[in-house]
Amino acid sequence: MENKVEEIKLPIDISKGKIPQKKKGSLVPIECKSMEELRRYSLERLACGFRLFSHFGYDEGIAGHITLRDPEYPDYFWVNPFGMHFNQICVSDLILVDKDGNVVQGDHLVNTAAFAIHSRLHDARPDVNAAAHSHSMYGKTFSTLGRLLDPITQDSCAFFEDHVLFDDYTGVVLETDEGDRIAAALGENRAAILKNHGLLTTGKSVDAAVWAFLSMDRCCQSQLMAENSGQVELIKDDVATLTKSQVGSEEAMWASFQPLYDLMLEKDDSFLN
Description:
Blueprint: H1 35-55, E1 65-69, E2 77-79, E3 95-97, E4 103-105, H2 112-124, E5 130-134, H3 137-143, E6 163-166, H4 176-186, E7 191-194, E8 198-203, H5 206-229, H6 237-247, H7 250-267
Parallel strand pairs: 6-7
Antiparallel strand pairs: 1-2, 1-5, 2-3, 3-4, 5-8, 7-8
Helix pairs in contact: 1-5, 1-7, 2-4, 3-5, 5-7
């Protein structure tokens, strides 16, 4: 018997499903008891992700995007509205886009590059529920070297043999066929260095995808600084593999996001609006 994909019912009331916020410092996952609760919970993390990108200086004009696959309608994804500053984005500002690039809910346009890359990525990787990309300073700088990160620190081991280099830069990504090529290059890996462009990270949750991006950008910074300072000694492959299993899992990246969510809640919780 074939599984039927339920037809989407619009508009989706994203004000429903609100649940109490996590306790500060808690690393216990919140149990969502309905699809509405799961959607609302995830959208709050997505909006927080944009505030974090602004907090760490990843906002650069109209560039950058984070996407979230809708938990009920997997062929649709939520993304930031084109032209809105990351630090102003709230849950109510997020737009819903279908697999053809049509905005089906929301009052703003979608970033063409966001659709071209993320729609093909979500299509190729059913396990990926969130993806993040921006033109962060260290990520885009490191990308010009046309190489992968080396296992030089505990943090960089999180990406050991779990990221790829997409070395075919042809300008701003506007067509889905380039999105297909990026998705193909990514394969089953967590992240990609887009040569002459920047970083792309993924996760089963927004939490993991956003933390992976923050951490990967800092790893780029660390390697750039280390190689400018002297001879860098690499961590042995077997140790790097072990360390990756300890700090590079989905659960570890999810956990690392939680203190930052607490920080944003305390700093300015308007992203929940």
